[in-house]
Amino acid sequence: MREAELHALYLLKNQQSELLRLWNLTLSAATATADAASFPSPPSLAPNSTSSPNSTTSRKVDRPNAPIPASTMDEFRSALIRQIKLNKQIQGALLSSHRLGNLSSEALDENGGFDVSGPGAGVCRKVDRPAERRTIEWKPKKDRFLFAICLTGQMSNHLICLEKHMFFAALLDRILVLPSSKVDYQYDRVLDINHINECFGRKVVISFEEFAETKKNKMRINRFICYIASPPCFLDEEHTKRLKNLGLSLGKIEAAWPEDAKLKTQKKRVVGDIMPKFSSNDEVIAIGDMFYADVEDEWVMQPGGPLAHKCKTVIQPSRLIYLTAQRFVQTFLGSNFIALHFRRHGFLKFCNVKKESCFFPIPQAAECILQTVEKADAPVIYLSTDAAESETNILQSLVVLNDKQVPLVKRPGHNSAEKWDALLYRNRLGGDSQVEAMLDKTICALSTVFIGSSGSTFTEDIIRLRRGWESASHCDEYLCQGELPNYIAENE
């Protein structure tokens, strides 16, 4: 009995500390609102700051003149739920030495029916899809084509490029021709191409091979109208040569806005700018790489995309990849898990040249992850990362909540004894790096809560899928969102 009472006192002390923290949080929120006009914004620790590079203070990026954010209320609700759970633990501890036969403490608790279990208990609830989207119809002419060219970066960048090409194809009433695998990725290994056409109820996208068959090997891009002015269409000599090796003859290459060649950043464009420049009666046109194109961004990037269709999302993983992701979740993760995209390789230099670095020391990252774990009440984390084992081992050792380690689950290598990935290997897709990358995205998109890496297009593609599939939650965020790294190395 004495041991149970001492344990109850320990739990009560924890509850007292948490309630005081919660009280201080409400006071600081009220003060921030009242004194917003007179509260100066703190300087940010930029990569080239003259501040000491080994400063150990994690700085928040404040917005003092803004209203109290919804995240503050979510934190409030999350803390209350934690207190309800802690209170139930206290009751259980006190009653543990006073049970009557098989009568449990739950039976003696008049509030025992109040359920605070599950993914976030409402704090990390799903984000409602907007009731309406701004869309246009995609009804292409059967004999007019837009030839897709995507060159920048890896697969995630190319998918962004393709999405913008689809928007242009719809505006210009053209069928989109996907690139050949000889000059780009083999998209039909990772994407459901038939699904795209089914979403629109008509043929809107064709493969390069189908295009070649249609043209009877007399293939020509009649005109290049380049969205990017310098270099025109983002084409270099090597890629031009590879296009010609496909049997394509190329028309004149010209920029839609030659004056843009002098600009350091792309100018924002709207539909009214596009139509006069790109409308053409030529049979086949190309507009070049569109990854950097800044065109109707809010319209293009809205959940479900800018085009009218009958699906949740248009560009999505192949059926085999989707089923494999589901089997992995059933095998290793279950219905309630957090997914973390922890980008590290090449990210240190990339982040530190930005005004606000996005590369966090592992102990700081672990603290941020634990905050999300508490809100989501998830028992396991799926880790999608390119980090070295030395980094992930430290991260795992620090992700500890209530003296219990939260497992970081990485996708294991192929093992014939495990059947979750059998579909991929049976269809000769196993071991393909692009297939595995899309599999990682799909698993992350199925999670209860997602933590991404700011500045990563891999993360952005996961966010796109989550919004489209309606799996996005109110707890989704970038790693250590609103913070700066507590240590930033000097630049070279």
Task: State the end-to-end distance.
Answer: 64 Å
- Number-wise, the strands total 13
Widest sheet: strand ordering: 3-2-1-6-4-5
SS summary, helix count = 16
- Would you tell me the overall average pLDDT? 83
Helix content: 25-40%
**Percentage beta strand:** 5-15%
Parts with pLDDT < 50 across at least 5 consecutive residues: 33-64, 100-121
Shape: elongated
Report the order of strands and helices.
HHHEHEHEHEHEHEHHEHHEHEEEHHEHE
Biggest β-sheet: count, sense, barrel? 6 strands, parallel
Verbal overview:
The protein has 492 residues and is α/β, with parallel strands linked by helices. The chain has 16 helices and 13 strands. It has helices spanning 2-34, 70-95, 105-108, 155-171, 193-200, 208-214, 237-245, 271-278, 297-300, 319-333, 347-352, 362-376, 389-398, 422-426, 433-445, 457-469; strands at 145-147, 175-177, 205-206, 219-226, 248-255, 284-286, 338-342, 381-385, 400-401, 404-405, 408-409, 449-452, 477-478. The protein has a 6-stranded parallel β-sheet with strand order 3-2-1-6-4-5. A 5-stranded parallel β-sheet has the order 11-8-7-12-13, with helices on both faces. Strands 9-10 form a two-stranded antiparallel ribbon. Helix 16 links the parallel strand 12 (449-452) and strand 13 (477-478). Helix 4 (155-171) packs across helix 16, helix 12 (362-376) crosses helix 13 and helix 15 (433-445) crosses helix 16. It is elongated.
